[in-house]
Specification:
The protein has 15 helices and five strands. It is mainly α. The chain folds into three domains: 113 residues, Hypothetical protein, domain 2 (Endonuclease III, domain 1), CATH 1.10.340.30; 75 residues, Helix-hairpin-Helix base-excision DNA repair enzymes (C-terminal) (Endonuclease Iii, domain 2, Orthogonal Bundle), CATH 1.10.1670.10; 73 residues, Arc Repressor Mutant, subunit A, CATH 1.10.10. Strand 1 and strand 2 form a beta hairpin. Helix 1 packs across helix 11 and helix 2 packs antiparallel against helix 8. Iron/sulfur cluster binds next to helix 9 and helix 12.
């Protein structure tokens, strides 16, 4: 593979075609990058792009974010998926204020010490915000490298091989544009199902040349989710937060909450399940408070 040609092709494609997002710029604010990476963890970029400016108005700095209550975070997080990420983000801002004087760390180990920051997010922040020379591997980039080099995505050895590829393949003077380009290519063309190889700007790809040779389907998760009334508990958790978010000032009677999310009067089995499964898990994630004496449920203040 001609890496000089590969680099110039992809970087030029990115110059001309990159997606515009409010957190992207030539000289991005590390706070904006941190926020966006937190928000993008399990939610589509197009949805985050709509919510991001609004969120910045409510929390323009790491300091304002660090002072948010749980309820304020849950309300501001509406439409961005898992609410416990909102709480972790606020905790991360607190940690940055307390330990790093309000400055987002620019080294790997300090970033990894922050709540909710794993290896991917730490390397993305270093690459995009601080322009460090570092490899970044998210699920899109992982899929692209596997396909370009014809690796079986279901083979346990592939993880290490992709890590090695990721280290040597990126242009050492432009980690930021390279990895953001691959993310755009992943979301536009190199999708998990039916990749659009004829439109993809990557010049040399083993999968494109012979897709039947390689096993490109993502491995199926064997994890069985706890569920109730044919819906996973995470859906019921989301419905509970949605109900409380709409009127977070007042506590709600547990029966009212259940009636609303089930759309019918709860029976004893419903109440027992709600008290034993949903309430404890939401309390554990610091999303709600529950007063067992008067049976009131509310967002955590
Ligand atoms: S050519 Fe196809 S399989 Fe290869 S990286 Fe592009 S979209 Fe993915």
């Amino acid at each position: 593979m001609d890496y000089t040609f590969l680099h110039s092709t992809i970087l030029q494609w990115f110059d001309n075609n990159q997606k515009e997002y409010p957190w992207r710029s030539e000289d991005p604010d590390p706070y904006h990058v941190l926020l966006s990476e937190y928000m993008l963890q399990q939610t589509q970029a197009s949805r985050i792009a709509l919510k991001f400016p609004e969120f910045l108005i409510s929390f323009p700095t790491i300091e304002t974010l660090s002072k948010a209550t749980n309820a304020q975070m849950i309300i501001a997080w509406q439409g961005m998926g898992y609410n416990n990420r909102a709480i972790r983000l606020r905790d991360c801002a607190k940690h940055i204020m307390d330990t790093f004087n309000g400055n987002i760390p620019s080294n790997y180990s300090d970033l990894l010490s922050l709540p909710g920051i794993g290896t991917y997010t730490a390397s993305a922040i270093l690459s995009f915000a601080f322009k460090h020379n570092i490899s970044v591997i998210d699920i899109n980039i992982y899929r692209i490298y596997s396909r370009v080099f014809g690796l079986d995505i279901q083979d346990a050895k592939t993880k290490n091989e992709v890590r090695t590829i990721a280290e040597y393949i990126y242009p050492k003077d432009n980690s930021s544009s390279w990895h953001q380009a691959l993310m755009d290519i992943g979301s536009s063309f190199c999708k998990a199902q039916n990749p659009k190889c004829t439109l993809c700007p990557i010049p040399d790809c083993l999968y494109r040349n012979n897709p039947s040779l390689y096993n490109m389907k993502p491995a199926k998760s064997k994890k069985i989710e706890a569920s109730f009334r044919n819906k996973p508990n995470r859906i019921w958790r989301g419905k509970t937060i949605e109900f409380l978010r709409n009127d977070h000032q007042l506590g709600h009677d547990l029966h009212d909450v259940l009636h609303s999310i089930l759309q019918q009067n709860p029976n004893e089995i419903d109440i027992e399940w709600f008290k034993e499964s949903i309430i404890p898990s939401l309390i554990k994630d610091q999303l709600i408070e529950y007063n067992a004496e008067n049976n009131h449920v509310s967002l955590k203040g």
